Amino acid sequence: MIQTLDIEQLRAQTPGCAISTHFNHSGSSLPSNAVLAAVTEHLQRESLYGPMEAAANATGLVDEARADAAGLIGAMPAEIAFSSSGSAAWGLAFAALPPIAAGDRILVGRQEWGGNLSTMQAAAKRAGARIETIPVNEDGSVNANALAAMIDDRVRLVALTWLPANGGLINDAAAIGKVTRAAGIPYFIDAAQALGQLPVDVAAIGCDMLKGSGRKFLRGPRGAAILYLRKAFLETLEPAYLDVLSSAWGEDGPHVRTDAQRFETSEKPIALLLGLGAALKQARSLGVDTIRQRIRELSGQLRDQLAAIPGVAVHDLGTEKSGLVSFTVAGIAPQALRGKLAQKRITIAANGIPYTPLDMTARGLSEIARASVSYLNTTDEIDHLCGSVAVIARQAA
Q: Is residue 277 located within the same domain as residue 300?
């Protein structure tokens, strides 16, 4: 259900909004007072009662965070594990797959995150397997029909980055899921840019694994991430390592947990997980459909205004677009542009080839500037950013 957001109140509850004009929500967004309080209050309890004692008393709150993470994506709490980062979560799931063998094939979307690619490349190199890129549609999105034509009995995994880090494209994750489900092939989704920005229903998508960071559009703290593993798929995975939380000791061998916590350890950042829990509650309270609508409107305005500036090129692909806006300014490198805007307390990002190497290389791009909007942003802030870019573009011409 779409509801009306009180943007003024939400910004007042976010200290960073008074300090800078923040357009790097896809890198790391601004946490709210509620998130800050959840983290700092737990650290205070640790200082008073001891970290282990404070953690024991916070068990119910961590369980709530797990339930809210599951509710956000249409999963069960038993299918949710927490991790230190999205990359760590992805690596844990990948390492638990049956070993890759010589001649095996891994199929990836063109926009795959560079860190995931490096993990797959290392495994493929050791085994003598191959990584192949799925062709794209005219709008740049991954082509599900082309994927279907690539499937054979050597394919061990299909990996998709749902929303790439280098622009506004939104891949059709559900269309890919129909192909993998029919073929019985594991399907991994990197949803780092989707969580907190797009509605997510893992059952409708048909993925076996989905991961995302808490620090981006969810507005949680750094160091806390979500790993979803479909229950039936989870039971086929063997974690690369175990500890006293993930597995009970037995004389006959380890008794591994049957839920997703088999991928967790007993040592975990409780304060950060409570901060993530507060962020999840806020996102669910506001409604992701409502968040999506506002981000769509604001990012559309930003694209239109940037495209109207002489010397500016907008590089976003896709039919339906996200809140990530990629662009370049003639005569000035994206990192230099980022620095000039930072002097005005305007925060953007500059991304190079390593973030999305297959897509950047295919499109002949070496670096892009990226401005990403949140529901927190305002039209005045968009005007401020675009006005500043226009001045810099004139100076660089």
A: no
333: helix, coil or strand? coil
Would you give the DSSP letter of residue 316? -
**Residue that is last in its domain, among 244, 268, 285:** 285
Kindly list the distances between the CA atom of residue 68 and the CA atoms of 61, 74, 119, 226, 283, in Å, as whole numbers in the listed order.
Answer: 10, 10, 29, 11, 10
* Nearest Cα residue to 134 out of 104, 115, 158, 102: 158
Q: How, if at all, do strands 225-229 and 209-213 pair?
A: antiparallel
CATH value at residue 67: 3.40.640.10
Query: According to DSSP H, which parts of the chain are helical?
Result: 7-12, 33-49, 51-57, 59-73, 86-95, 114-127, 144-150, 173-183, 202-205, 231-234, 270-286, 288-307, 334-342, 357-362, 379-396
pLDDT tens for 200-245 read 999 999 999 999 999 999 999 999 999 999 999 999 999 998 888 8
Tell me the backbone φ, ψ of residue 156, rounded to 5 degrees. Answer: -105, -20
Residue pair 185/233 in contact by the 8 Å Cβ criterion: no
This model's pTM is above 0.85: yes
Whether 273 and 169 map to the same domain: the answer is yes
Say how far apart CA 306 and CA 315 lie, in whole Å: 11
Q: Find the helix or strand (DSSP H, E) in which 185 lies.
A: none
Residue 215's domain spans which residues? Answer: 35-285
Q: Would strands 312-314 and 324-329 be described as parallel, antiparallel, or unpaired? A: antiparallel
Q: Which helix (H) or strand (E) segment is 212 a member of?
A: strand 209-213
**Is residue 116 assigned to a domain?**
yes
Our count of domains for the chain comes to 2
Is residue 2 domain-resident? no
